[in-house]
Amino acid sequence: MLCNATNTNPEFFGQNIVPNTDGIDTYRSTNVQLLNWDITCGDDCLAIKGNTTNLLADNITCRGGDGVAFGSLGQYYNLIDNVDNVTISNVLVTRINSSIQPLMHSGLYMKAWTGAINGVPPVNGGGGSGTVSNARFINFTVEDPDFPTLIDQTYGGNSTDNPSKMQFINITWENWSGTAANSTVVDLECSSTAPCENLAFLEFNITVPSGDTPDFECSNSVNVTGISC
Description:
This protein has a single domain, classed as Pectate Lyase C-like (3 Solenoid). 0% of the residues lie in helices and 55% in strands. It is built from no helices and 14 strands. It has strands at residues 24-26, 29-40, 44-48, 52-63, 67-73, 83-94, 106-113, 129-143, 147-155, 165-179, 184-189, 196-207, 215-219, 221-225. The strands form two sheets. Strands 1-3-5-7-9-11-13 form a seven-stranded parallel β-sheet, with no helix packed on it. The chain is globular, with a radius of gyration of 17 Å.
């Protein structure tokens, strides 16, 4: 399938006028292979959503947008979002000409709603629970995303809400290289109710802009190895 949504109107240059244009989302999916994808979009390149298991994504190029995402998760109150055994490998995340698409949010990010209910799905929500476990992100090259990788557990809510009920455990970032647009290289904003556990960074080498000091933020994270939080 080919969908060409190229903007040629100068009025919209430098703006992301294509929000919610994900490359592909998985939901309640098992035994999935995503191979040889090249995606230019205004939102998530790949979005791994609730109850996805046994997934392999390999040889992926993300041009602009939000990068590779997990979630959002925990959006539906009293429902469980479990994600297990996911491998994403050989990925290029690259910022493109800003007049075409100014957004390049992240290399890989995980987003979970807070433990509070803020409105009604599908636009709003929160209060759901679950676990993301046994995920591996191997051979990533990132070119100037705002955040090479982050976990955000206040998605769709406020920092004063009840903490997220989602938990992220046994996750590995392996053989990462490239550049960040800002000084923040890793941002782990995990939940005090369900702290992140066993997060390993192996051969993780991201360069920040000249004159900046690499910043590694780790909140409510247990047994983080390979970086200096």
